Amino acid sequence: MLDQIAGCLERGMKVSVVCNEMAFGKDSNVDDARWRTLHGPVVSWWGGLNRYRSLLQKWSGRFWDKLSTSIDLANARKLRNVDVIVAHFGHNGLRVARIMKRRRISAPLVTIFHGTDVGRPMHDNTLGYYRPVFEKGVLQLPVNAFFRQALIDAGAAPTQVVVHHMGIRPGEIEYRWRSWQQGTLSFISVCRLTEKKGVEYALRALAGLPHRDWIYSVIGGGELLQELKLTAIDLGIADRVTFLGPRPHGEVKQRLREAHIFLLPSVAGRDGDLEGIPVALMEAMAGGLIAVSTYHSGIPELIEDQKTGFLVPERDIAALAGKLTWIAENPGLCEPIALAARRKVEADFNADILNERFAQIVARLGQGGSIT
Known about the structure:
One of its GO terms (molecular function) is glycosyltransferase activity. This protein is α/β, with parallel strands linked by helices. The protein has helices at residues 2-10, 33-36, 53-56, 62-74, 90-101, 116-124, 131-136, 145-153, 199-207, 225-234, 249-258, 279-286, 317-329, 331-348, 351-366; strands at 17-19, 42-44, 85-88, 109-113, 139-142, 185-190, 214-219, 241-245, 261-263, 290-294, 310-312. The strands form three sheets. It has a six-stranded parallel sheet with strand order 8-7-6-9-10-11, sandwiched between helices. It has a three-stranded parallel sheet with strand order 3-4-5. Strand 6, helix 9 (199-207) and strand 7 form a beta-alpha-beta unit.
């Protein structure tokens, strides 16, 4: 999101941010210059009432819907006097659409669907919940084709649902192949430690590797941190696995430069939580790491098995261990895969190209044009 905002600013657009949390961007980008230099105003949607939002959310169902919509309506002025409204995540698009139904605002609404906002309603069979977004919004931008089809199946007009990938700036990431032929094989994961990231399966697969010299670094915090540490102990690999917790972006980039294999065996959460297409995979592939992931959500749109990385079925520990063993034993055959991965990111997940495309869409809508 920060990069998309930066892309709009670079193209002369004025950007304001209305959000729930005033720490927007800081938690996951603690040293990111795009946060520090954001030019437009950043305001809280609910103002002083925002401090009570998490408490009020405990009242689920119709009462919460009515209360939150009433507060949104009372603060609708913060969404006026703009040419286009871009809502990140379906639930925020729904909030705007409900205000539009009451004619409080009229700017074109573009909603970007990222992951859990599609996965959980799919799991609960409640994607129809977004019908006001489909009716009032002019464009839905899911981040992968899997989500596009899900939204169409839920009632969105196919002409108003366009895949728009998130991306990275490969020009800012140096590609460097490093072989593990003679040294210690270094695995790394960078993610929030939640169920859908599948780190448990990475640990179990690594425990099944034939004996050789390897280490595994896990960067990120989350509710599963302590549980995963205990899993590593139980598997007898705690001496090879380091849980580093959240780290500044600069340190993450350095550790990626020192690693060989990027592990992200994503799975569908038991609550339906899904990935979009993880940016961390793109960054690793751009930098020359071998990416290993799963046939999950939109990930196959980024990684083609044995062509630009490696994929296994979700939760298949034996298959994952088999792929990791093959990779460990064939560094020479992996080098052209790493190069092809870099080219894939440059061609299809290049933020400079994607931001230009997004800016053109927004400019066209802001001038009263259509999306076609």
